[in-house]
Amino acid sequence: xxxxxxxxxxxxxxxxxxxxxxxxxxxxxxxxxxxxxxxxxxxxxxxxxxxxxxxxxxxxxxxxxxxxxxxxxxxxxxxxxxxxxxxxxxxxxxxxxxxxxxxxxxxxxxxxxxxxxxxxxxxxxxxxxxxxxxxxxxxxxxxxxxxxxxxxxxxxxxxxxxxxxxxxxxxxxxxxxxxxxxxxxxxxxxxxxxxxxxxxxxxxxxxxxxxxxxxxxxxxxxxxxxxxxxxxxxxxxxxxxxxxxxxxxxxxxxxxxxxxxxxxxxxxxxxxxxxxxxxxxxxxxxxxxxxxxxxxxxxxxxxxxxxxxxxxxxxxxxxxxxxxxxxxxxxxxxxxxxxxxxxxxxxxxxxxxxxxxxxx
Amino acid sequence: xxxxxxxxxxxxxxxxxxxxxxxxxxxxxxxxxxxxxxxxxxxxxxxxxxxxxxxxxxxxxxxxxxxxxxxxxxxxxxxxxxxxxxxxxxxxxxxxxxxxxxxxxxxxxxxxxxxxxxxxxxxxxxxxxxxxxxxxxxxxxxxxxxxxxxxxxxxxxxxxxxxxxxxxxxxxxxxxxxxxxxxxxxxxxxxxxxxxxxxxxxxxxxxxxxxxxxxxxxxxxxxxxxxxxxxxxxxxxxxxxxxxxxxxxxxxxxxxxxxxx
Lengths: 360, 261
Fold this sequence. Notes:
heterodimer, A: alpha/beta, Rossmann fold, five-stranded mixed β-sheet, 15 helices, B: seven-stranded mixed β-sheet
């Protein structure tokens, strides 16, 4: 049954995984997300639901275990932070190519390289534009609270299975580490063998006499066929763009200026809005929840309404490219970012908005 | 002058003494004539047929010459990224502990890029079978040096012969994994003569049967030829293999589990 708890974002992800009927978690420790694996090891989900939890030898092994588990029609996931997620990109590309539904969590830290363990949003490009080799997309969900960390686990699996595609929860060290109250969902059962065979008839569950052998692969050596594979994938991504765009509008109706921000940045901007409105500046916030598919139409609509948009990101300017592309020149679009693990303050963000659009 | 003794009329169902197992798909093998892969595929599928476990078997194919193994083996299979097959097999077996799970990998896949996955799956003692085809060369990409290439052996990336001082030593993966407590059965076989084929098939059978005892990885290396990569005729390749590969990679069981009555 539902339960109200005070939890870290990382712990909420782990508990939500057990409750949503996840079959397996494969992971490798890395700060700032190790609590996910630690929580699961303490909770012994094998006794609670039969869920498998395994500490792998590397992120490379983890994502390939996810590939295989998904290939068996199971709900499987992994989590990591930026350097580890870079290591997983090959495996993710294989998952996308083989159309395997699975869930990945990236609790982003500052880069490049080993970078820092403090929060960052510098993996936006990697998450939304593909990341690994080949033309593919992930479904990207960006939580901005511990509650959404919890809720997006189940949502991520639902979308992954709906489209036979990997889904990614793109969060950061701040949301992963901070504690908030969270309403945990009631537990649902893991799929039974029969349900798995019904839901994923393509999976490698063992070849019975009455069906051909199932094969999970992303290989197609015949270019004419490989082009068709790509066309099918692109059609699927177009469907996602049509059906799955999610965003939150905060005080947008009368807004003359607009922040566009996701995750932790969106929380900071909400405070900036309060400060701005106290000074009589009408500012709103568009918070993309799905980063892919991106809320293109909403950006264009709001670009026709406001005098300027400020993309606030904890990176050097990544999402701002998508905003500019979709604002279609209807209003000026600027970017403000802090990097390397630094989070901007609400005052600082408001000051930049005033400098860029209002003067002073 | 010898008369031709071939009589096309003898090709009749009732005269067949050796049939294709229907656990091999009706598809022509993509391997070079003379290559050992076809024989290894066949005895593996015969073991699965004889044990009656087709519905309970999941295979994992590698990257390398046998990348298309799933086109030939008539069981549910997953194609792994290069070297990752033991990670896949780990997840499959953990999620479906009552299934028989095997990987089929070459030397580049298992002993170079996939060394970590191999060692750690063995060290965790996953209840899987790893089948390791070692021909001392990268066949599919055109004859480059492998971790198992012999000292002095020429390949397209060791054109003057493998120099151990700069290119390292041939890796005996099978002896290495035998030292790990997570392996229960470790053996090295060959498939170039009828006698060796029979022994290799028995080893595969043992390896699969051991999965039900849940005592760790059963690991079967098959030393094989690569007449194309070695640039020899199939017959010469087999002779060369006996004279050069077997002394470095001696055939036989390296580790066997305690018998149970």
